[in-house]
Write a structure and sequence with these properties.
The complex is a heterodimer. By secondary structure, chain A is mostly helical. Chain A has helices at residues 2-18, 21-40, 44-65, 72-76, 79-84, 90-119, 127-151, 159-166, 171-186, 192-219. In chain A, α2 runs antiparallel to α3, α7 (127-151) crosses α8 (159-166) and α9 runs antiparallel to α10 (192-219). Classes of the chains: A mainly alpha, B alpha/beta.
Chain lengths: 221, 216
């Protein structure tokens, strides 16, 4: 347990110390959402209708920008070898590093989402639910990104390849994420979709590290 | 000062394949507490691969490597320290933060080892709070070697540990290996530079396919 804490703390410290990643992700999210009305036109009703989908898709892309950092730096400088020899199984290493990615990338993005929602004429009274839905769904985003990052270990410019590998796996998160928020606008009573979103996140938190560990093991060769 | 280690390491019939080529095969050795193995051989004969196999980072093509005398169920990798060509040093963390992380991480829930004492081994204590990115190559290597002291483990796997170290530091490393062996530890070192350490075993790796394949 101490090892998990030490690893998560170090990864969070590194991501703040080295900077860049969070700022780029937030800036990308802002720009993508901000230019959408130029493409879709100034129809406020239309913007409000596409807002949930747009916010989610832009968030997925922004989160993937820094996904290659999950393992790449540690692989390059030899840290991953030593991490593999610690008391944590490789799946534990993958889970800790995915968790750190969630804290440093997905949580700031989810917190920025309401501000961007305003740009899209998203109803203000559903903003708490928007943040909750994103916080519930984004663990799946980080943990599945961990699979992509471990599969592309050692490749140069692996970022785009990760997006290609991982985006199809985000379909369930996207479907239930968008429908959770849309449902909240029209019918705030039904909770089923929200629990589905939580279920997807919990399942990825358990299963994705196992897949990532298997990919890391082959990456060592 | 350390609790004496009682681990023995045994390799039986180990073989290694890299890129579809057999690097070495039928390699066997046994090391008792306090013994040290020098691995030598020309470039590309599998010194690093052997180290990584013992550390559990590379699969064995054949044979087995086992460590006895530790708590039951502890994987061999958790008894080993591996210091290879890459230092595993984070340039944006300070020297002390780097070492503290490795100590906390590698120890897990166990105790033992002392970061402050470890910092003194190679005289890095005065620069403990500067970013590791500002260190010279030799200092980074020393920082990587400090893992050995910050978290006690019975088996040391040192792959060319003396690269970019100055003469005084190589001597200190030799003393450290001697001290580790006196505490019952095992050291496996591959080096081209004589360290002055009296190794109890020597393993000579040589190219397997020299005879069959003519040199290009």
């Amino acid at each position: 347990m101490k090892a998990v804490l030490a690893l998560v703390r170090r990864d969070i410290a590194l991501s703040f110390r080295e900077g860049g990643a969070i700022g780029v992700a937030l800036g990308f999210y802002l720009v993508v959402v901000a230019i959408a009305p130029f493409g879709l036109g100034p129809d406020l009703n239309l913007l409000a209708r596409v807002a949930p989908g747009l916010l989610w898709i832009a968030l997925l892309l922004a989160a993937l920008l820094s996904a290659d950092r999950i393992f790449h730096n540690d692989y390059e400088d030899g840290s991953l070898d030593v991490l593999a020899m610690g008391p944590l199984p490789l799946a534990g290493v993958a889970a800790s590093k995915s968790l750190a990615h969630w804290v440093t990338t997905c949580v700031p993005l989810a917190l920025l989402a309401p501000v961007l929602g305003l740009l899209l004429n998203f109803p203000i009274h559903t903003i708490p639910l928007l943040v909750l839905a994103m916080l519930a769904g984004t663990p799946a985003v980080s943990f599945i990104a961990g699979i992509g990052a471990s599969l592309t270990l050692g490749l140069r410019r692996s970022g785009l390849l990760i997006a290609l590998l991982v985006l199809p796996l985000y379909v369930p998160v996207l479907i239930f994420g968008v429908s959770t928020i849309s449902a909240a606008v029209t019918d705030p009573v039904r909770l089923g979709r929200r629990f589905m979103l939580c279920a997807i996140s919990l399942a990825s938190m358990v299963l994705a590290p196992l897949a990532a560990a298997a990919a890391l093991r082959t990456g060592f060769r | 000062m350390n609790t004496p280690f009682t681990v023995t390491l045994e390799a039986r019939g180990v073989a290694c394949d890299r890129g579809g080529r057999r690097l070495f095969e039928d390699l066997s050795f046994a090391l008792a507490p306090g013994e040290a193995l020098l691995v030598q051989g020309p470039n590309g004969t599998g010194k690093t691969s052997l180290m990584r196999q013992i550390a559990g980072l590379l699969p064995l093509a054949a044979g087995e490597i086992s460590a006895k005398g530790a708590e039951a169920g502890t994987p061999t990798a958790e008894l080993c320290h591996y210091v290879g060509h890459l230092n595993g040093v984070k340039t944006s963390l300070s020297v002390r933060e780097n070492l503290t992380f490795w100590a906390d991480y590698l120890r897990g829930d166990a105790t033992g080892g002392d970061v402050n004492a470890a910092l003194g081994v190679f005289g890095l204590a005065p620069i403990a709070d500067i970013a590791a990115g500002l260190l010279s190559a030799g200092q980074k290597r020393k920082l990587a070697l400090l893992r050995l002291f910050a978290c006690p483990r019975p088996i040391w796997l040192l792959d060319e540990p003396s690269v970019s170290l100055d003469v005084a530091s190589v001597e200190r490393l030799r003393q450290a290996i001697t001290g580790h062996r006196e505490a019952g530890g095992i050291a496996i070192v591959s080096t081209h530079v004589p360290l002055g350490e009296a190794f109890t075993h020597t393993l000579d790796l040589h190219a397997l396919d020299m005879a069959e394949e003519p040199a290009p």
